[in-house]
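Continued from yesterday's entry.
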Amino acid sequence: MDTISRDNNSSILPVAGVIVGVVALVLSAIALVKVSSANRLLAEHDAKVQKIEAIESQVTTVGSTADKAARDLVGLKNATQEAVNQMTVMIGDVKASIVKIEESQKRPAARAGASKEPVVAGPGEYVVKAGESGAKIARSHGVSLSDLQAVNPGVNWNKLSVGQKIKLPEKK
């Protein structure tokens, strides 16, 4: 009996080995499919991570740009306020000048000879008195009327006013 049981045991072992081998092949095929699927998912996730990193870089750049724009905006606001303040001062100065001009226009202009101090003639000058004419002044100083008119080109001889200064020509 001993020989028969050994023969039966020995024929089961190779079958069991084949079964274990087939099961191992099936399990390795399943593992290979799972590893391949895991590698594909890992590649997809890696691409997504790269996209997220690129977006993060862009967000950082945009954040820096926004911070710079905010600082520039504050600087622009301050410069604009300073310009408005300067314009306000200038407008106030212009307004004060306009008020001075308006006030000076309201005051009567001081007329020649109307000052409290008497007009004094210097050397070679004469101060017109009431009722005098160019001819009378020329005769009284021993000069011709044409010489008197020549040295006083801007004088209106028809409208001489009291206190007006005129130049006297040199006697010949």
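--- second protein ---
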Amino acid sequence: MWKFLVRRLLLGLMIVVLGALVTYSVIRCLPASYMEKMARQLSAGSQGRVKWQDLLAELNRQYNMDGSIISGFVRWLGDALRGNFGDSWKYMQPVTKVFSDVIWWSVLMNIITLFVEVLVSIPLGILAARKQYHAADYIVTVFALACISLPSFYIGTVLKYVFAVKLEVLPLYGLWGRYYNSMGTWGKIGDVALHLIMPVATLAILSIGSLMRYTRTNMLEVLNADYIRTARAKGLSEKVVINKHAFRNTLIPLVTAFSGLLPSFFGGAMITETIFQIPGIGYKSFEAMLQGDIPFAMFYTTFLMVLTQVSLILSDIMYAVVDPRVRVN
């Protein structure tokens, strides 16, 4: 087990470094230049006394952008290994501080979404498997396919139009209202909860479909197994057969489906947070990348790659927890 973990950690480290190099190269090759924009603004502020070309050269030297892509990446990697990810060009603060200020809103929203997803998709997936080719199965399948097919910006826009514009029962955007600071503790919690309903609903609709189909497919495979027929032949109730024998064996494939939860928790939902203007890490990252904020973009993408590798390693460990045969192999 230890040899396996060491191999996976080394492989994950190599993937993260190569991925960071690719990301850095792509960002450096973008036609939009934040440095040039800043140089032109500073030159205009000086009434043309300083040429923007000279200011651009100085800014590039200051932010290690005057060399090649490889040399710039090596300097960035050296600073990153020491925990120094630089200052965000857009927010004028250390990248780690901007991240720590907003990350927990994304985590809160994704945790609530996870509970909604599990409570809805897994029971409906089991129901569809038990009622295969019946009306319930067709209804669940159509609903799941609709959830998978619809993009997040469409779902979010429809929800905003119906519940915020037409019915006026939910706030249109943001995380709190104008009277938030004057409210008590429970009032603030209720205000935030009210603002999170539509973003959470959008994320839940996006994720329910795939997990529902995944649960249905694996449950059908398990229900056709010999040991399930044996359990029914022994006179066990259908509830015991489904909950105790069948569902446990569907957990193995579901571990794979849940392996991407860790990056989604801390990575935020860029499109959904942007639509509803939720000040989470996804929305902040979107704004930073629009400005060509290389320090923030590099930290954000590298952080997601690290989380992805950690989640894959944890999913391999969970295989052994759920299925003892994996430990034997």
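The chain has two domains: 32-84, 95-328. The chain has 15 helices and no strands. Will compare against the first tomorrow.
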